[in-house]
Structure formats: C-alpha cells, structure tokens
Design a protein that fits this description.
The protein is about 25% helix and about 25% strand. By secondary structure, the protein is α+β, with helices and mostly antiparallel strands. It folds into three domains: about 10-90, Uridine Diphospho-n-acetylenolpyruvylglucosamine Reductase, domain 2 (2-Layer Sandwich); about 95-205, Uridine Diphospho-n-acetylenolpyruvylglucosamine Reductase, domain 3, CATH 3.30.465; about 210-430, 3-Layer(aba) Sandwich (Vanillyl-alcohol Oxidase, Chain A, domain 3). The strands form four sheets. Strands 12, 13, 14, 15, 16, 17, 18 and 19 form an eight-stranded antiparallel sheet that branches. Strand 8 (about 160-165) and strand 9 (about 175) form a beta hairpin. The longest helix is centred in the last third of the chain and has 14 residues, at about 430-445. Bound molecules: flavin-adenine dinucleotide.
C-alpha cells in the first residue's frame, strides 16, 4: 500500500461510509470490481463499494486528499483494460428505482442494469429506450449516448434523460438538469466521463407495450443474397424501424444453441414500435429475400427487447473494435463478406452493421454532447480467441476498415470508439467543437483532475 494513506485516513473513511472499503489484497475486492470480460482483472489501491450518495462524496474526498485517481464502475461492461492504480467507486449497491406512472419518469440508481428497469416499467405499460443487452448498466451506457434496437425511432437513450444527481470532484452533491447546472447536464449526455460521479438518473420512459421485432437467420448459400438484400432494403426503410445485420461464426461448443452451433450465419434484427401489421409489411421484403433458416421476428412484449439481439449474458475474453459510417453500399458489403465468409480465415465471432439515423440524427432542443449524430451506420468486429488478439484480429479489422475507408465518419460515439484506450482515437470520439467544450467543462468541474478519464 502506498504511504499516502497509511495513517488512520482509511479507518476514518471506513467509519464515514456505510458501504465497504477494500484495500489492495483484501478478500472480496476482485469480486466487487469483476468485469464482463473476465480476463480484465482490476487491482486498484482502494475500492469503495458505496451504499449511499454520501459514501460517494466521502470516497471522492478521500481520493482527492490522497492523490488517488478516481474511476467509477457499475457492471464492468465497459472495462477494456485492467485498472492498476487509484480508487474505484463501485456503484453496484445503488440500486434504487422509482417509476412515476403519471409523468412516465423513472429515477434510476447508478448501479442498476437495464433488466430490472425494463421489467418495472412494463408494469406501467412503459419502456426505457435501452441498448441491445439488458445486463449493461443503465447509467454508464447512457453517459455515452446509448444506441439500441429502437435507435432510429427513438434516438439515443441520452435524449430521454431529464436530470442527474451527481457527486462533483469537490465532493458536493448537485443536480444537473435543464434548469440547474445546464452546462453539466449537456456534458453528461454523451460526454461520458471526467465530469462527476452520477448517483441517480431521471429518464423519461415511453408508452410501449408491444413491438413487431426479433431476429431472423440465414445460413449457407442464403447468407450472401440476404445480406445484399438487407443493404438495399434498409437504405429505403422508414425511420420508425430499426435494423442491423450481423455475420456470426457460432462456436462449436455445447453452450451454443443447437441449430446455430458451429455454423456461419447472417442474423438480421428488426424492431418496429408501431402497428404489428405495418411492421410485418415493412419486414416482408427482407423475409422474402432468401431461404430463411430460423425466424424469430413477430409481435413481442416490449419488455423482451433484449431478445432482439440476444447478446451473451456471460462475458468472455473478447477483442472489440467499432466504427461509425456515413453510408453503406453493395461494394462495402461485398468486401466485408469476402473478409468474413467461411474459409476466409476470419477470427471474428461477430461482424455487425447497425443502421442508425432517423431520430439519432436529431439533437434534443437544448443540445447534448452525444457523438455520432451525423453517422448512418455502425460497424463492429468482435473476436473471441485470445490467440488472435495481438495480430490476426487487428489485421483483419484493419482490412475491414480499409474496405469502408471512404465511408468512415469523421467522428464517432464513445460507446463505439477505442478512444478511451487509444490516444490517437480519443480526440476523434466527438466532433471538434463538442470535444473542446467537453474539455472546458471537465476543467471547470474537475480542475484537479480527480477523475481519471480517457487514455492515460
Ligand atoms: C455485451 C455488450 C453490449 C453492449 N451494447 C451496447 C449497445 O447496444 N449500445 C451502446 O451504446 N453501447 C453498448 N455497449 C457498450 C456499453 O454501453 C458501454 O460499455 C458502457 O460504458 C457500459 O456501462 P456499464 O455501466 O455497464 O459498464 P462499467 O464498466 O461499469 O462502466 C463503464 C464506464 O461508464 C462510466 N460510468 C459508469 N457508471 C458511472 C457513474 N455512476 N458515474 C460516472 N460514470 C460512470 C465510467 O466511465 C465507466 O468506466 C455494450 C457493451 C457490451 C459489453
């Protein structure tokens, strides 16, 4: 342990908080800050598993006094690199949730994943605008903007935030909303980090009981024509519908669903939040584009939104790279297919193209720091075999980037970017004017740089 806090400072911190303080080497520390990718193992000097917002304030003050950089973790879905210094505030126990059925506002504790929020909202006939996975943390996801299965009809999740309660670098508890600290409110919607610790988020829910949605799978000879059809069909799709297409190389392991095990497939996801008959009509051309292998698209409860993408609940070692694109066309599609098709030596478990635009292109009336509004597609590559992470996966991802080089957006979105771990990408994570304004906001709210954020 560093000498900076060898005194009774730790004892005072333990007395002051109702949560648990772990020092490096303590039993329970590793479990408290376990990550989605289990090969990323944090080993900071201190972890404070906060139970209240007062605990957050005490932890921030302790860190500032002892020169420890502060990071925040809820679920560990966002951790790409191990944290080996400073203090982690673990928000898992901040799990309060209140829904006001009259206003449709949900007050969400910083430790909550989407799943319990989706379930509680459904009881009011309401739904949060979420990401693809219901095990991702609601606050961490939304601070980056948040692009999900309803992106084109409803925009970024950050567009639905109505306020935050935060602990500042000075240890003060303040509100940020349209009328109180509006500049901080702007920055927190998309700026992601280096600003404050969010303890609570107020999110407007939308009235939504059912979706015409799900995923459909093509296999073998049908994969290529179905992808070609997806490119043309999605280009003309109504803004109210959201779709993505993913090439999956499903591992030949027992845990894989039997019909998909060991197969190379194309999965097309679709979500339409309106009349199911209209949704069926919109989806019909894609459904008819090639021989369908499995079809799970139909009317479903809005609370089943996570079944559209079916992201894994359990994490595993992974190498992920994301891009945002201004456009997508047959030429790009053909090049990507050649790089991922069976026999190509592709290391990727998944190569996904999501169509965005529609509501994601429209900022809120008061503006947000969300990056990626000018983009129309996202492109992600995910490898799962650690033996490929050093060379093959980066080389193949570079080849895919090359294939779409003329379409890559000038800036990106922080939830999609490697900007938090790669210096060269950090500045391009937001449009230049947004980047500069965020830098000024961080300097104002955290002049001593108590919060560690971005490539170190
Ligand atoms: C399986 C999977 C699916 C995903 N799907 C999507 C998707 O569909 N759309 C999308 O946009 N993104 C998606 N993401 C990316 C995800 O939104 C980010 O990784 C997000 O940061 C995860 O937040 P978390 O709280 O779960 O993770 P954590 O690792 O706990 O937190 C990530 C970061 O969020 C910040 N943070 C978290 N809580 C707080 C807080 N209380 N105060 C201040 N800062 C905080 C910190 O900077 C922290 O480092 C996905 C990621 C995974 C692994």
């Amino acid at each position: 342990m560093g000498s900076a806090f060898e005194s009774d400072a730790v004892a005072r911190l333990r007395d002051a908080v109702s949560g648990t303080v772990y020092l490096r080497g303590d039993d329970g520390l590793a479990a408290e800050v376990a990550c989605f990718d289990p090969t990323v193992i944090h080993d900071p000097e201190v972890v404070v598993a906060v139970a209240t917002e007062n605990d957050v304030a005490e932890a921030v003050r302790f860190a500032a006094e002892n020169g420890l950089p502060v990071r925040v973790q809820a679920t560990g879905h966002g951790s790409e690199l191990p944290i080996t210094d400073g203090l982690i505030i673990s928000t898992r126990a901040l799990d309060q949730l209140q829904i006001d059925g009259d206003t449709g506002f949900a007050t969400i504790g910083a430790g909550l994943r989407w799943a319990p929020i989706i379930a509680a909202a459904a009881e009011f006939g309401l739904a949060p605008i979420t990401g693809s996975s219901s095990s991702v943390g609601a606050v961490g996801y939304t601070l980056g903007g948040g692009l999900g299965p309803l992106a084109r009809s409803h925009g970024f999740t950050a567009d639905w935030v109505r306020g935050f309660r935060v602990v500042t670098a000075a240890g003060d508890i303040v509100t940020a909303d349209a009328s109180t600290n509006p500049e901080l409110f702007w920055a927190l919607r998309g700026g992601k980090g280096g600003l404050a610790v969010v303890t609570e988020m107020t999110l407007e829910l939308v009235p939504l009981r059912t979706l015409y949605a799900g995923s459909i799978f093509f296999e073998g000879d049908a994969v290529e024509p179905a992808f070609r059809a997806w490119i043309d069909w999605s280009a003309g799709l109504a803004d109210e519908a959201t779709t993505s297409a993913v090439f999956l190389q499903v591992p030949d392991v027992e845990a894989a669903p039997p019909p998909l095990r060991g197969r190379f497939v194309l999965s097309v996801r679709f979500a339409y939040p309106g009349d199911p008959a209209e949704g069926e009509k919109l989806f019909a051309p894609l459904r008819a584009s090639a021989a369908v292998y499995l079809d799970f698209v139909g009317e479903m409860p809005a609370a089943a939104v996570a079944s559209i993408h079916n992201d894994p609940e359990q994490g595993s070692a992974s190498w992920v790279r994301g891009l945002m694109l201004d456009s997508f066309d047959q030429e790009a599609g053909r090049a990507i297919y050649e790089l991922v098709k069976p026999g190509s030596g592709s290391p990727f478990l998944a190569v996904e193209v999501r169509q965005i635009g529609g509501a994601t292109a429209r900022d809120t009336f008061d503006g947000t720091a969300v990056g990626g509004r000018e983009s129309r597609y996202t492109l992600s590559t995910i490898a799962g075999d650690p033996a490929t992470f050093a060379e093959l996966a980066p080389a193949r991802a570079a080849a895919i980037s090359e294939a779409v080089a003329d379409k890559i957006s000038a800036t990106t979105n922080v939830n999609w970017s490697v900007g938090l771990v790669e210096k060269a990408a950090f500045e391009k994570t937001w449009p230049p004017a947004v980047f500069d304004r965020l830098a000024a906001d961080r300097a104002e709210w955290d002049p001593q740089r108590v919060f560690a954020f971005g490539p170190q």
